[in-house]
Amino acid sequence: MPNSFIPALDPAALPGPPWLFHVLWVLTFLIHLIFVNMVLGGTLLAAFVGRKKPGAREVQTFFVGLNSWVISFAITFGIAPLLFMQVLFGRFFYTATILLAWAWLGMLGILTLGYYLNYLAKFRLRNGKNVRVVVIIEAVCFLTIAGIQVAINLLHLQPGRWESVAQQAWAALGDPTLVPRILHFVFAAVGMAGAVLALVATRRATKGVDREACQGMAQFGIRAALIATGLELLDGFWLLFALPEEVLKAFMRGGPATMIPLTIGILFGLLLLIVLAQITDPLAQAKKVRRVAEMIVGAVVFMVVTRHQLRGIYLAPWRGEEHVTVATQWGPLALFLVVFVLCLGLTVYAIVRASKDKPGPGEEAA
Description:
Layout: H1 18-48, H2 56-76, H3 79-99, H4 101-126, H5 132-156, H6 162-167, H7 178-206, H8 211-242, H9 245-252, H10 256-278, H11 286-315, H12 330-356
């Protein structure tokens, strides 16, 4: 299918086997997405927790404090999947960003504003002031970024729509899967943030922190995860059947390779609903709370795989005549993998130390 908007294939050979870059993209995007989910979902929960709910202030303090470093990790760990995207689908993805250039570049300003508002909220919390309005605006910033990312990712999958979007940028919002895709990410983010909140609250309770506040945090987190998971399952079927007919048929004909990850992801969601509905006292059911957090991460893994498979199906008609040459450079690849694993290990170590080594208040402790 000819399309004058599609740039010519880069004549330079790939520096490694394509399958390796696909695996690395899925892995690095998964890590990036976990941090993104915590930022988006945590900010939404902090914005809409009821002021009079037990532990409401602790919920806001937890997520605002978390965002002060999780936002940085989300940005940093977004670099690697963006580079692998460039290697595998660069001529499609970057064309979409050019067509929506103002929105793509505008994300930098929106992200800066959201980050600044988070520190403003942190300052106000420290001084005992209300942060509801500040955090709501921050949540709107991150929701806007999520919407832009989804619109660009949908556009890069469909070169057939590029001409209409080039004439009128608002045409990018006409995709029938846009709304269910955005909701799918939002519900997943809220579910993960709620589960993490409940997990943290159960652990704090064992260390003698205010039990009533911990109970309020945990119950709010479990309730949010339960509602978000139920809505995500419903939205997932909406998204599946909103796919273009030819894409849906090709996906269903993919056999075990496509159907197994999708089926496992759905089963994870159903199992999550069952376990979440059984948790009536999170502090007394700490093991189930931990299982919920683990299952949510498992569900995200299979959904990321399914998302990547759908990308291949969308772009298959436009890549039929693509002939990629490979000239593997094992030295740089090995160096990247070593540095990546080292940095990932340091990140985990820093998170663990930060969660355990909390200085007390006052100048001496500082």
